[in-house]
Design brief:
With 154 residues, the chain is an alpha+beta fold. The protein has one domain (12-145). It has helices spanning 12-28, 36-43; strands at residues 59-63, 72-76, 79-86, 89-94, 99-107, 126-136, 140-145. Strands 4-5-6 form a three-stranded antiparallel β-sheet. It has a two-stranded antiparallel ribbon with strand order 1-7. A two-stranded antiparallel sheet has the order 2-3. The radius of gyration is 15 Å and the shape is globular.
Length: 154
């Protein structure tokens, strides 16, 4: 059973992330106060007059089996000696095999390049980093969406 509106791949996390990726792509060419559906509606301008400035639904993914938040690592091309990590991602794309390209989101002012948990990472001004990775969505059991933000206008 799918938990996304448009997709029914049999993988709930993949379906939601596909829907987010589609909505975010549309920006560039709910009863819950905070939820994936609410964040998607805000991104598409269905619930908020400021939605035209929103371009990203930050997500946290939880690993299958451990239900631990997934931390992604990457290298900034301007500083290859210092890897950075994040628990927050922007969905770039999801293919038919449930592989997703995720971009790390970080607050540039966050001094900790390797947070120990999502609560240790500053989320007040999340921005795109240009650091992307490909993940297998079949390895995740849960997705949490944050309210939609403007990650490109910083």
């Amino acid at each position: 059973m799918s938990c996304g509106k448009k997709f029914d791949s049999g993988n709930c996390v993949a379906d939601i992330l596909r829907e987010i990726a589609d909505a975010q792509t549309d920006i560039f060419e709910g009863d819950c106060v905070v939820s994936c559906e609410k964040s998607i509606q805000d991104l598409l301008g269905e619930t908020s007059p400021i939605a035209n400035t929103l371009d990203t639904v930050p997500v946290i993914l939880y690993c299958e089996g451990t239900c631990s938040p997934f931390k992604g690592f990457g290298i900034d091309v301007n500083d290859i000696s210092n890897p950075v990590a994040s628990y927050y991602f922007r969905v770039k794309s999801v293919d038919e095999d449930n592989c997703a390209v995720l971009e790390l989101l970080r607050d540039e002012a966050d001094a900790d390049p390797n947070p120990c948990s999502p609560v240790d990472q500053d989320t007040s001004d999340l921005e795109v980093t240009g650091i992307c990775m490909t993940v297998d969505l079949d390895c995740f059991c849960h997705v949490t969406c944050l309210p939609a933000i403007s990650a490109f206008d910083r």
